[in-house]
């Protein structure tokens, strides 16, 4: 089986070509600020990114012949996890998505390219809007604002299955707490294969992160909204984008922040330690969801490369369960293997409605 995986991100488009389980090409096509500034909206980047994918395949001598093309799932309506075949309902919903992000282009690129090949199927897998919350977890103190989940579902599930496979256990037989530590931070509570509780890592819940504000004091936020100091769009950026470490320290570069700390920057040390503290509090809250019956805590994402962060997290949370670190993310591999499982009939293909 020949599979093309496409993962559009904020400043890059990552692609991978797999022959069954074997990667034949992995490429990270980076986009400069100048290139992307030509497009008023993210959706306007579609042709630009699609053509770059085709050019990358040609430049690497990869024939345009695939059994499936799988894209990163976009910010659709809440759906259960799994593999979905791209259909008209999905494409219609993504064209009217309330939240704008480059990942929204994943299913569109997959569908457009698959349509060029006879018999080629287009999929998405475990998009960031996967919603398997227990109903109790959905309730907040205001009926106007039920909790929603936007999280790193694809990577969390991939890491969970990797951990389970290493121990010859099924993911569906484990209770796990998984922390994706990236530009946004999601802490997922996985109860025997279901993510029964997880924060909205995009626009306002959980620990603050390199570029997101996390949970904020509601009263102060309302006062700021009516202060006249900022436009609506400016305030949104102060929640997601120009928030977190970026707002406090002017950078999201963890190695650079660590160097500042080594040079005696006490403010940088305070802020980074505060982020670690908030992550640990979220893990503690997740432990309560599982009644303390936790098989393991898994740390993943780009910041999991930082020994400074992971060691301090372990100090706070290792009394709850064994902590294992899986730096980086396996999203391209996860996409490809989900598509492969669907083609082989090993994974059910769900219908988006």
TrEMBL record:
Keywords tagged on the record: ATP-binding, Cytoplasm, Kinase, Nucleotide-binding, Transferase
InterPro entries per the UniProt record, alphabetical: Aliphatic_acid_kin_short-chain (IPR000890), Aliphatic_acid_kinase_CS (IPR023865), ATPase_NBD (IPR043129), Butyrate_kin (IPR011245)
Gene Ontology annotations of biological process type: acetate metabolic process
CDD domains on file: ASKHA_NBD_BK
EC numbers, comma separated: 2.7.2.7
Tree of life domain: Bacteria
Reaction catalyzed: butanoate + ATP = butanoyl phosphate + ADP
Intracellular or extracellular location(s): Cytoplasm
Primary localisation category: cytoplasm
UniProt signal peptide: none
Record keyword Kinase present: yes
Family: Belongs to the acetokinase family.
HAMAP family reported in the protein's UniProt record: Butyrate_kinase (MF_00542)
Name this protein carries in UniProt: Probable butyrate kinase
Gene (name only): buk
